[in-house]
Write a structure and sequence with these properties.
By secondary structure, this protein is α+β, with helices and mostly antiparallel strands. It has 2 helices and 11 strands. The strands form 2 sheets. A 7-stranded antiparallel β-sheet has the order 6-7-5-4-3-9-10. Strands 2-1-11-8 form a 4-stranded antiparallel β-sheet.
C-alpha cells in the first residue's frame, strides 16, 4: 500500500465516523423530543422568547388573580404532541377560580395552605395568556428561572405558548 491509499482509507474512516455520530445525534433528538417552549405575540406571531425543553419537562405560569387578589399558578408538561395542563395551585376561592372538580381531578392542600387541583392532563392547543397590567405573570421552567412576562413581552401583551419540536427534516 502506498501513502495515497492509506490517506484515502483514513479520510474514508473519518467521514464514516462523522456521519455515524451525526446520525446518532439526529436519532437522539428525534427520540428524546428536544425542542423549544416558544412564546409569541398571539396577534402577529412576533417572537418574544424561546427556551430549550424536552418531553417530560414542566413549566408554570404564576400571577396574582385579578378578582380574588391571591397567587395562582398553572402548571404544564411538555409531551410528544404538545403542551398539557396538569395542575393549578391557588390560595383563595373567588370568581374565575375553579370551585368544582370534574371526573379524574383531585383537590389536595399544600403545607402552605395552598389548594392544588390536579388530574387535568388536557392538551392545550391554544395556550394564551394576557400579561397583566396590575400584576406580573412569571414563567418558571422545571422549577427554575422566574421570567417576568411583563418585562419580556410588555403589559397587556397577548402571549401564545407552543411547543416547537426541533426537527432536522
Amino acid at each position: 500500500m502506498n501513502f495515497d491509499s492509506v490517506k484515502k482509507i483514513h479520510v474514508s474512516v473519518a467521514v464514516i465516523a462523522i456521519l455515524a455520530v451525526a446520525a446518532m445525534v439526529v436519532i437522539y433528538i428525534e427520540t428524546v423530543g428536544i425542542g423549544y417552549l416558544t412564546l409569541r405575540n398571539a396577534s402577529d406571531g412576533t417572537l418574544y422568547g424561546r427556551y430549550h425543553v424536552k418531553v417530560g419537562d414542566t413549566f408554570g405560569v404564576g400571577f396574582i388573580h385579578s378578582v380574588n387578589k391571591s397567587p395562582l399558578t398553572d402548571y404544564y408538561e411538555i409531551k410528544e404532541d404538545g403542551i398539557y395542563v396538569e395542575k393549578t395551585v391557588y390560595y383563595g376561592f373567588g370568581a374565575g377560580v375553579q370551585t368544582e372538580l370534574s371526573e379524574g381531578e383531585t383537590l389536595t392542600y399544600g403545607p402552605d395552605g395552598s389548594m392544588i387541583v390536579s388530574g387535568f392532563d388536557r392538551k392545550m392547543d391554544d395556550l394564551t395568556y394576557f400579561v397583566g397590567t396590575v400584576s406580573d405573570h412569571t414563567l418558571t421552567i422545571n422549577d427554575k428561572e422566574g421570567i417576568s412576562l411583563r418585562d419580556l413581552c410588555g403589559r397587556n401583551a397577548r402571549v401564545r405558548f407552543s411547543y416547537e419540536k426541533w426537527r432536522f427534516f
